[in-house]
Each structure stands twice: as C-alpha cells, then as structure tokens.
Amino acid sequence: MYTKILGTGSYVPQKVVTNADLEALVDTSDEWIQSRTGIKERRMSETENTSELAYQAALKAIDAAQIQPEDIDLLIVATVTGDKPFPGVSQILQRRLGCKPITAFDINAACSGFIYALNVADKMLRSGVYKKALIIGAEILTKITDYTDRNTCVLFGDAAGAMVIGESEKAMIKEVVTYAKGDLEGLLTMEGYPLKKDFKTPDNGRPFLQMQGTDVFKFATTVLPQVVQELLDKAQFNIEDLALIVAHQANKRIIDKASKTLKFPTDKMYMNIENYGNTSAASVPLAIDEAIRSHALKPGDTFITAAFGAGLTWGGALIEL
Ligand code: UT7
Predict the structure, then answer these.
(1) Cα(278) to centroid of ligand 1, in Å?
(2) Up-side HSE of residue 284: CA atoms within 13 Å toward CB?
C-alpha cells in the first residue's frame, strides 16, 4: 500500500503588510529586510481565525482532488496558532467541512508541522486503515509576534496550505522523514501558562514568540541540505532529476546557501518568501500549491520538500507528482 497527492489548495488573508508599514513601527528599513531575508511583504489576518484560513485552503484542495468532504477519513492540522488551546483546528474543521465523525487531530511541530502531518498521514494510510487524508498547515503568526521586537516582527505572516493524499498502487510519496532535537529548544520558543503556585487566576500578560535568529540560521543551513541528501540517498534518486526543491520559506539566504551546498540550481529552489514572509507550518503546503498551480511542478515531476523550525524540528519528503 502506497500513497500519492490527490490535490492541493492554499489561502492567504487579504491584508498586505509591507516593509514600509513595519518601518513605521520599529527601527528597520525595507533595504535591511529585503537584503537580510528576501521578504517584501506578508499577509495579516484581521478578521479570520486560523480555522477559517484552513477551511478556505481545504476547500480548494478537496476541489482539486475531486473528492467530497465525506470521503475524508483522516484530518490532521499542523499549527502552533490554533483558534484556542482546545478544541483543535482539526476538530473545528471536521464540523465546518461536513466530514463524517473521523480521526481528527492537531500536530505541533512548528515550522516543520506540515512535514510531520505528511509523515503521520502517509504511515496511517499505508497501514490500510485510512483511505483519504486531508492535511493542513495553517498559522496566524501575527497573533504571537511582538511588534516592538525588530528581530522577529519583520519575518512572520499568516497563511494556510492544504493537501489531500490517498492510496496509490505506486509509491508516489516515496520517502518522508522527521526529526526533533529538544536540547536546542531555547533558540525558538514561546512561554505558555505559568505553573500554578497558588490558586490565583492566570496572569493575562500575553506571551510572544522569541528567537535567537543567528543560531537558528546556522541550524537551518546545516539540516536543510542534510535532509535533502538523506532523502536522495534513501530513494536512490539523483539530485539532477529533481524538478524543484520546495523548502520552508524562512529566509532567502537559507535557501540560497542550501542551493550552494547541494550544488543545485538556485532557480530550481522554489521561492515565494518575498510575498508572504515566514508562515511557519503553512509555508511548505502554500509553496507546493503555488508551484503546482503555476505549473512549476507538473504531473510526473519529482520534488523534495523540507522544513525546519522550533523544537528544534526538521524533516522532508521526496514526492513524485
Ligand atoms: O521558521 C523557523 C526558523 N527560523 C529561521 O530559520 C530564521 C533563521 N534566522 C534568520 O533568518 C536570521 O538570523 C534573521 C533574519 C532573523 C536575522 O538576520 P541576521 O543576519 O542573523 O542578523 P542578526 O540577528 O545577526 O543581526 C544583525 C544586525 C544587528 O545589529 P548589530 O547588533 O549588528 O548592530 C541587529 O540588531 O541587524 C540588526 N537587526 C535589524 N536591523 C534592522 C535585526 N533585525 C533588524 C531589523 N531591521 N528588522
């Protein structure tokens, strides 16, 4: 029993936040942001919560897969910015989409979340128990970003990407790997509720994400080429035969460095960071959907997708369309 992609979809909220908008908030410049990250603008959701972005992306993926919501028997949402701590976005979506009562759960693996969802769904489908999985990466990072911190506030944006995967006689989703290294946790983190030392109600001071950017950059430029090479070795596939590498869109310089390390053409490293910034778990499925819809990826093409992020986590997949 193998798996394949049946359809993809994505959605971004309407409001565009430009680098000039951020110049008005913190001591930064369009020149710094573009040259250090490749980002020109990002989206911000003012009225739609994470489940709404996920819902819109899911409708497009379901349509592209030419299935009905009732055909889905597994629903996984990767997010660190769900509408609420519980219920999960996946359970909200099960009702919104009109799916049958099915297995539906959220995954927290930050920017690698979609690859984790893909890995879990692929293995659950391969077991033969589940037939069609809807997997989604959806984030509203603007909710947890500190707009007084120039080190992080220029980087993040909001989006959702979705994919339907189903059974296949041929292995089209050929390899998926995921990893975590928790000892590097402090490099990219966000505080949660404090422990209850007395019976007072929780302090409502809202926590924000925090990042040691340079250390995360070093980690990313190490694991990205590493995981690509691992996937190629496992699948016994030549890098020259890849149509694209669709990496997590965290920084143009990370992608350029991986291209150099791998000696893989920069123009085959898919890039849309200039329009959306870093959208965490949504980044990879949004980029894959755009690549498919713009025919940068065509049926028969083989590509690698890979991501890295808080946890620290990383992973990747080698897929034939
Ligand atoms: O998705 C999860 C994974 N996340 C990542 O992969 C992100 C990885 N990290 C990065 O992409 C980069 O480290 C950043 C884009 C976050 C930062 O770039 P950098 O080249 O590592 O800059 P830096 O943090 O070393 O800062 C260089 C200088 C500093 O000034 P001084 O100390 O040299 O005077 C910063 O204060 O740039 C300053 N700086 C800024 N200046 C203008 C930092 N942020 C800004 C800013 N505008 N927004």
Answers:
(1) 14
(2) 31
| Pocket of ligand 1 contains residue 284 by CB under 6 Å | no
CB of 251 within 6 A of ligand 1: the answer is yes
| C-alpha closest to that of 283 among 157, 163, 197 | 157
CA 269 to ligand 1 centroid distance, Å: 22
pLDDT tens digits for range 153-197: 999 999 999 999 999 999 999 999 999 999 988 899 998 887 777
Q: Is 217 in the pocket of ligand 1 (CB under 6 A)?
A: yes
Question: Cβ neighbours of residue 109 under 8 Å, at least 6 residues apart?
Answer: 78, 115, 116, 178, 180, 281, 309, 311, 313, 315
Query: Whole-angstrom distance between the N-terminal and C-terminal Cα of the chain?
Result: 17
pTM above 0.90, yes or no: yes
Q: Which domains does the chain have, with CATH numbers?
A: 2-170 (3.40.47.10), 175-320 (3.40.47.10)
